[in-house]
């Protein structure tokens, strides 16, 4: 082929590429490679196109060949690093990106990509320094401002994060991720209304962004005005959008795992869990005791972690699994390919619509049986999520089923198994009021749960118990944030004490000794905080609501034998609080006995709970097998 013809073909491919017609460009680059196998441009640009088409394995091969033809191309090294990162080869990716920077030290795009990779590997301080170096190279680079904002959020510096994302949007109002990133930072600062406004502004122009839609759903659970009918409709709409997107995804060779029929031989059930929270996190507190006691003759366990943090809790969880994989930073296509290769029989989602979830993948049907459990207090909205594990108190039969796309599988008496932290201090010997201190109510819940209705009710309790005070502890809790909310709830700020986050779990638990009574928010009640309070000898008052999020406390308190702490309505909630405040003998007895009550409850009978959990999983499995048999027969 003449050089002129090759050049013409290259120009034609470039025209398609620059116009955004990536598949057409990729096809022409492939033609050029056939006709000119030593063309650096055909391999380099073909690799770049493959990256844009989410084909990192193809991209890596093409870019490796391009580097063989021109090893000192900084742009090729940068793209090579991106392809390696997408394949999860983070060490090699970092080498390629740093090699690119040796040739072009101030390239702002490469610096930004390196910073992003450092975030994925958990090196937040290095990532921040790299973004700052990037901004010195190009001060008005919106991507670096937003990237640094995301690092600051991970470092619990939400106000700085908001300012950086706002700067990115000022520089580039159409930035594809800055508005959603700012929404997440607003939420970290408990500014839910502003977070929702950002998500909705983004979705007005990007209605098919499933990640943004999912994160918005998480925020809706905090609302004190949204009905469960409205909440379900929002989740179902997400599920329909995810299903539609999945149908547009190019089919994989094994895109529809076979549903097992009763004559399918199975010695063990291959059971996989997918979560970003297989680390020091509330989800792990409730998962570990189940994993420890699951029958290994019945189940083979795979754990899919999806977070840059791997700690001592991660290692303990890992010891209970036959296989462990970390998916952080990997594209959805790569994750899908790996899960299909592992071929689990049952895939359990532990994230729901919380951060770093992979819910859209479930719409592609990755396993014959797909189950939601633990991490989220509502339906996923996905028709492809077959089951949701719960109990009859958190989701009453005949009442909750209509508000789930999943079939509810209930195991009694409670759906949780709690693992108290091993470094727990002993409970406080006496309630604060018995030591001559003001009677202290408190909540250590995520501050986003303390919506206006919750604060108003807590204000009524303070007025019903003269001289009492309210102690709050949460990330992002500042006087500037809480004061106007207290004023709106008619609460005297002088009766409020704010506590900052503690350095460790033991220090956090020790602070429960400062509470006489813990107050559960609504409609999004606590789970971990309720168990912590009971473990530390502090009674918790919960308000039973009409949805799972508002009924977790009902299940936990019933399991520990303290249904008298469950309020049927706001008046009842206030009465229970007032009665406890005026009965020091009863309060002292509760503080002295609640840990033992929890120890003797189903929540800490881990072997029995694991057996119930196992039976629920087998019920899901057999239900799907029976369904497959009926379908095959028809």
Automatic annotation (TrEMBL):
Its EC number is 2.4.1.255. Pathway: Protein modification; protein glycosylation. TPR repeats lie at residues 108-141, 142-175. Residues 416-436 are annotated as: Disordered. InterPro entries: Glycosyltr_41/O-GlcNAc_trsf (IPR051939), OGT/SEC/SPY_C (IPR029489), TPR-like_helical_dom_sf (IPR011990), TPR_rpt (IPR019734). One of its GO terms (molecular function) is protein O-acetylglucosaminyltransferase activity. The keyword S-adenosyl-L-methionine does not apply. Keywords: Glycosyltransferase, Repeat, TPR repeat, Transferase. Residues 419-430 have a biased composition (Pro residues). Pfam families: Glyco_transf_41 (PF13844), TPR_19 (PF14559). Residues 266-409, 440-607 form the O-GlcNAc transferase C-terminal domain. The keyword Repeat applies. Belongs to the glycosyltransferase 41 family. O-GlcNAc transferase subfamily. This is protein O-GlcNAc transferase. It comes from Nibricoccus aquaticus.
């Amino acid at each position: 082929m003449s050089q002129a013809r090759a050049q013409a073909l290259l120009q034609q491919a470039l025209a398609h590429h620059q116009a955004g017609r990536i598949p057409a460009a990729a096809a022409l680059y492939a033609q050029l490679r056939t006709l000119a196998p030593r063309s650096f441009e055909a391999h380099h640009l073909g690799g770049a196109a493959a990256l844009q088409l989410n084909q990192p394995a193809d991209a890596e091969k093409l870019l490796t060949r391009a580097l063989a033809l021109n090893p000192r191309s900084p742009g090729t090294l940068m793209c090579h690093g991106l392809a390696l990162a997408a394949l999860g080869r983070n060490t090699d990716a970092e080498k390629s990106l740093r090699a690119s920077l040796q040739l072009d030290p101030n390239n702002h795009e490469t610096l930004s990509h390196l910073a992003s990779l450092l975030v994925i590997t958990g090196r937040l301080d290095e990532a921040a320094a790299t973004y700052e170096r990037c901004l010195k190279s190009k001060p008005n680079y919106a991507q670096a401002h937003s990237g640094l904002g995301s690092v600051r959020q991970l470092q619990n510096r939400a106000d700085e994060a908001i300012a950086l994302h706002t700067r990115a949007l000022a520089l580039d109002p159409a930035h594809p991720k800055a508005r959603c990133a700012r929404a997440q930072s607003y939420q970290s600062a408990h500014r839910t209304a502003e977070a929702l406004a950002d998500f909705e502004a983004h979705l007005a122009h990007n209605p098919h962004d499933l990640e943004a839609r999912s994160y918005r759903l998480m925020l809706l659970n905090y609302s004190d005005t949204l009905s469960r009918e409205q909440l379900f409709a929002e989740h179902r709409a997400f599920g329909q959008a995810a299903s539609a997107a999945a149908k547009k995804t190019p089919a994989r060779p094994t895109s529809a795992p076979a549903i097992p029929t009763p004559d399918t031989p199975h010695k063990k059930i291959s059971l996989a869990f997918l979560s970003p929270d297989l680390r020091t996190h509330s989800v792990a507190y409730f998962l570990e005791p189940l994993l420890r006691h699951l029958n290994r003759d019945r189940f083979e366990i795979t754990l899919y972690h999806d977070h840059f943090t791997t700690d001592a809790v991660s290692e303990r969880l890992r010891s209970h699994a036959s296989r462990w994989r970390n998916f952080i930073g990997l594209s959805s296509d790569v994750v899908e390919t790996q899960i299909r290769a592992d071929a689990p029989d049952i895939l359990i989602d532990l994230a729901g619509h919380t951060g770093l979830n992979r819910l859209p993948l479930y719409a592609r049907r990755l396993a014959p049986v797909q189950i939601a459990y633990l991490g989220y207090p509502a339906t996923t909205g996905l028709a492809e999520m077959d089951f949701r594990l719960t109990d009859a108190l958190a989701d009453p039969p005949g009442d909750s089923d209509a508000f789930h796309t999943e079939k509810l599988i209930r195991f009694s008496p409670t759906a949780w198994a709690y693992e108290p932290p091993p470094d727990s201090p002993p409970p406080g010997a006496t309630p604060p009021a018995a030591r001559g201190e003001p009677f202290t109510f408190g909540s250590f819940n995520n501050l986003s749960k303390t919506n206006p209705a919750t604060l108003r009710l807590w204000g009524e309790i303070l007025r019903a118990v003269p001289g009492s005070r309210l102690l709050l502890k949460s990330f992002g809790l500042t006087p500037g944030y809480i004061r106007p909310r207290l004023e709106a709830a008619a609460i005297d700020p002088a009766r409020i004490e704010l506590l900052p986050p503690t350095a460790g779990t033991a220090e956090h638990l020790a602070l429960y000794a400062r509470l006489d009574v813990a107050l559960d928010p609504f409609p999004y009640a606590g789970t971990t905080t309720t168990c912590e309070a009971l473990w530390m000898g502090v009674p918790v008052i919960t308000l039973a609501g009409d949805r799972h999020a508002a009924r977790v406390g009902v299940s936990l308190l019933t399991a520990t034998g303290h249904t008298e702490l469950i309020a049927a309505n706001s008046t009842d909630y206030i009465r229970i609080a007032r009665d406890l405040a005026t009965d020091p003998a009863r309060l002292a007895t509760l503080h002295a006995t609640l840990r033992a009550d929890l120890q003797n409850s189903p929540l800490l009978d881990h072997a029995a709970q694991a057996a119930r959990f196992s039976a629920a999983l087998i019920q899901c499995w057999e239900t799907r097998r029976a369904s497959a048999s009926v379908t095959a027969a028809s």
